[in-house]
């Protein structure tokens, strides 16, 4: 007798559990793609932020490269001026006039060398800046791609959730049709 009473109580108490669990499965099948899409979008946004940060670093490197080149050029010109001054002094000590003839040729050659080295410093800095700028542009492009991919993933998740919802409604409709049929058929 106790066993029958216990069985009746369990049956009445937990009779809605399988239906509840079935409904929970439906909710999860709808929510899972939506949540996965949102997670993918958040991951893509994090990648985009990292790429933007990397782009800023590359731009900073370009600015540092320009400043370093300017300093190198200033140092070169100072050394060149000291060299030309020493040459003029040596010419003067030897009794030569530095503004004519061979002494002038030596001074002009020194000046030409200084200008060539300065041009090389500027050119190398320009190449460095171009490289850093290109990498910054690439990082920004990757950030844009990551954002677009994230939006697509979120949209795909929503569409997946709607698809699962449609499937659940169809399945329920099929069951409803079966339950609505008269018993003798």
**How much β-strand is present in the residues?**
under 5%
Give the overall pLDDT as a whole number.
83
Termini separation comes to: 38 Å
List low-confidence stretches. none
Helix content: over 70%
Quick one: biggest sheet? none
Given the helix and strand composition, which structural class is it? mainly alpha
Determine Rg (CA atoms, Å). Answer: 40 Å
The 3D shape can be described as rod-shaped
Strand element count: 0
Following the backbone from N to C, one meets helices and strands in this order, namely: HHH
> What is the number of helices?
3
Task: Describe it.
This protein is an all-alpha fold. The two termini are 38 Å apart. The model has no long low-confidence stretch (mean pLDDT 83). It has helices spanning 2-13, 17-93, 101-179. The protein is built from 3 helices and no strands. It is 91% helix and 0% strand.
Blueprint (SSEs and pairs):
Blueprint: H1 2-13, H2 17-93, H3 101-179
List its traits.
185 residues; mainly alpha; 3 helices
Quick recap:
The chain is mostly helical and 185 residues long.
